[in-house]
Design brief:
The complex is a heterodimer of chains A (178) and B (422).
Chain A (H helix, E strand, L loop, with lengths): L18 E5 L6 E5 H4 L3 H10 L8 E2 L5 H14 L6 H6 L6 H11 L4 H14 L2 H15 L4 H8 L7 H10 L5
Parallel strand pairs in A: 1-3
Antiparallel strand pairs in A: 1-2
Helix pairs in contact in A: 3-6, 6-7
Chain B lengths: L12 H9 L4 H10 L1 H7 L44 E6 L6 H12 L2 H5 L2 E6 L14 H7 L5 E9 L12 E9 L5 H6 L5 E8 L5 E3 L5 E5 L6 E5 L5 E5 L5 E5 L5 E5 L6 E3 L8 E5 L3 H8 L7 E5 L6 H7 L2 H9 L3 E4 L1 H12 L12 E6 L9 H5 L6 E6 L5 H14 L5
Parallel strand pairs in B: 1-2, 2-3, 3-4, 4-5, 5-7, 6-8, 7-9, 8-10, 9-11, 10-12, 11-13, 13-14, 14-15, 15-16, 16-17
The chains are: A mainly alpha (178), B alpha/beta (422).
Amino acid sequence: MAAAADSSGDGGTSSGEKTIVLVSSDNSARFEVREAAALLSQTVRRMIDEAGADASGDGITLPDVDAKTLAKVLEYCNKHAPASSSSSAAEAAPPAEGEEDLERFDREFVRVDMGTLYSLVTAASYLKIEGLLNLTCQTIADMIKGKTPEQIRKTLGITSEFTPEEEDEVRRENAWAF
Amino acid sequence: MSASGDPLYALSAAVLADVLGRVADAGDIAACRLASRALLAASYLCPPASTSAPPTGAAAGARAGAVPPRSARPLRTSPRFSGVTSGPCRLTRPMGRVPPMTRCAEVAAWAATSAAAVLRELEIADYWPQACWRKAEALPLPLISHYCQNLVKLGLKNAWLSVEGLKKMPDLIHLTLEFIRLDDEDLNQLNECFPCLHTLNLIGVGGLKDPKIHLLHVKACRWEVSNVPRSLVVHAPDLVFLELKCIRPDTLILDSPSLSTLKLTIDKLGATVRVDGLLRLTNLRIESLDFSSLFPVFIDNRGIRTLELELPESASQYELLEAVNPDYLLRMLASISEVKLAPRFSCELKLCLALCKGSQFGSCLKKLLIHVPQPGSCSHLLPLFEICAPLCEVTVLFHAESADAVRQGAISVCMQNFPDIR
């Protein structure tokens, strides 16, 4: 998947806002994003701080995030990032979009297959993007509510690996709930 | 697809625990535990939380008629049975009518599983406070003592408890009984079977006759008792903190030589009081009108450093005046380093202070906190300021609706007349 790159070539958008290049785990894609969007990730923030003066223009490689997932994650970050590009403003300023618009975006954002949802929650956990982690974990939690064990397995795409004896034991331990 | 190839296995245990921590219902958590090993393991890592919400979802079928209360805030619930580390387990009986034997049967059935044997913390609460009035639904506390031998912390609420057959639980160090009818009149069984308690909370425990707390290791105790018991005895050599709320016991014995903090709410002190062992008592809170009995017993000739005074809800300023001589009160307050006068006491103090004759005596008072009722000024507090030691830190809490002018006026008067007060 190709990255959207700016034309300035000097790490800035056409509006002069600072950008950061993020590279997927398989090196197949490079994404140039606004600094404010990238810094929603505490992992990226730490990587930049640790690189310091040794930071290169080759971008920051994210070893645990493939291209498809990184594209989706950055879609979230670009939407939720604050309007200003300064790192301090990234912490304090509200996002550029209105709250209702963001909620609508979030609802649509998680309308994906379970494989993609799992990839997103894993990426959000690795990248330490709090908002995305909250959104994806809550989505999975909402899918679980009100379901029987069989329905939970079907929804989450899992198989039961309990032996009959093990299932009996777990069922007895939780008999108070059933 | 084999289990290990399930996409769920790609999620870390921490992430799964985060997901399960957001599932608000104990029944749904139980369904997850049955769904897969990964979810079962993750349920051990969920943060504990309390809930009074009834089971919903898959578990609701077993509770016909159960309706979630409208006011119940959805709380995160996680019943955890850990075989490795301690994990709290909270079982809350739902609303709805359930046959009495079901209750004993369900606790007994659960207690007999391997999960109960490894529990370290357990709380059981009935949704209905009236449950403590129904002997037919007595909780099998002896069963818990038999099967949950590793318990460190136990809390029981809204129940009638039988102690017949209760076994010793030497590992239990925290016990809370709240709104409990206890078939242990003198607390003999409690003392014998829970000998190593560090914390004991007996809140609204009924069925007592002449209760005696006799525990060698207890350090903190909260005891709220009705007017039924005529004598209250505490033998606790290691007790450091005691909060006691009672009505008017004929006999009160506190044999607690290590006690440093006592919060006492009492209508009237009885004829038989023995508190001569309280040599380390330094922090005292009294809520009562019976100051004429309480001050000589608990304050005179003791090294009290912090004192808080409050009146019962129905007390009036005339009753306070009858209860304590104003000059004696001022002299007594001046002998304490830190004094807090709680809202009702502060409010009714006005007449008392107006009748003070003089305040020419030495003072140790270094910190004073007082409330000013609305709409009042605080000119009546001047006698109180006169007993403050130099550089005394005075905090006056005005009612939220007090006018700014009143507050500013008070500060001006204070600074003009008492420049040593901070």
